[in-house]
């Protein structure tokens, strides 16, 4: 399952003409594209789906959602190590999504 997860912007930089951010998702830090929210600033929260910040979110709503996702184990499901998750599920190989393939190509 793919979730749209709220995260807090820690750092912003431009890479190859694309505005990118380092975003904290309740302790999991990932790189996110800010092209859909070009005015998003460090310290603000956004809903992120498949590596793209899609919508600004207030801090209280973001923290409540992250807490609920953590309680339900959904953050681990979304951001956990795919090899570890595959082993736990008894699969021979982990599931691979488009974002993971792009990381391998880099």
List the helices and strands and how they pair.
Elements: E1 5-15, E2 18-25, E3 28-33, E4 45-49, E5 52-57, H1 59-71, H2 74-79, H3 82-89, H4 98-105
Antiparallel strand pairs: 1-2, 1-4, 2-3, 4-5
Indicate the radius of gyration in whole angstroms: 14 Å
Any idea what the shape is?
globular
Mean pLDDT: 79
Quantity of strands, as a count: 5
Cα distance, first to last residue? 24 Å
The largest pleated sheet is described as: 5 strands, antiparallel
The low-pLDDT segments are none
Strands ordered across the widest β-sheet = 3-2-1-4-5
Roughly what fraction of the amino acids lie in strands?
Answer: 25-35%
SSE pattern: EEEEEHHHH
Count of discrete alpha- or pi-helical segments spanning 4 or more residues: 4
> What class do helices, strands and sheet pairing give?
alpha+beta
Share of residues in helices: 25-40%
């Amino acid at each position: 399952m793919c979730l749209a997860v709220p995260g807090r912007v820690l750092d912003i930089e431009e890479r190859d003409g694309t505005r990118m951010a380092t975003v904290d998702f309740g302790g999991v830090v990932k790189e996110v594209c800010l092209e859909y929210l070009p005015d998003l600033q460090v310290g603000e929260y956004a809903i992120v789906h498949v590596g793209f910040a899609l919508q600004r979110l207030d801090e209280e709503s973001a923290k409540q959602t992250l807490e609920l996702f953590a309680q339900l184990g959904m953050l681990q499901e979304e951001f956990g190590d795919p090899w570890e998750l595959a082993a736990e599920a008894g699969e021979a190989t982990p599931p691979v999504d488009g974002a993971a393939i792009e990381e391998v190509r880099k």
